[in-house]
Design brief:
Strand order of the largest sheet: 1-4
Shape: globular
Number of domains: 1
Number of strands: 4
Radius of gyration: 14 Å
Structural class: mainly alpha
Number of helices: 5
Length: 104
């Protein structure tokens, strides 16, 4: 069985997170130095400093966040992962058999 991309952030299986640098993150799984080397996530996080915005809603409505969620939704439906940041793919791709086992 192959892997399936099942993004936890859009399946309401995980919550957004705030890291110790006061940045809003789509989830806690990507807050590692290695994952944050990804250029898309780096731009997203740099634009997500809570102290530089009036509200969290301003952050999640920013072009970086809107584009990330658009790409993730599309990839979730099509399983075409070319545009998805690799940390998201790495964090949210699981073997189908394991997923089925966890449902029981």
């Amino acid at each position: 069985m192959g892997k399936m991309f099942k993004p936890l952030c859009i399946a309401n299986k995980t919550d957004m997170a705030v890291n110790n640098r006061n940045q809003l993150m789509p989830c806690c799984y990507i807050d590692t130095p290695h994952y944050l080397e990804d250029s898309t996530l780096k731009k997203l996080v740099e634009s997500s400093d809570i102290s530089k915005h009036k509200s969290l809603e301003d952050i999640i409505n920013s072009k970086e966040w809107v584009e990330l969620y658009r790409v993730i939704h599309e990839a979730s439906d099509t399983q075409d992962l070319k545009k998805v940041p690799w940390p998201c793919v790495d964090s949210c791709s699981k073997e189908q058999r394991r997923e089925e086992w966890l449902k029981k």
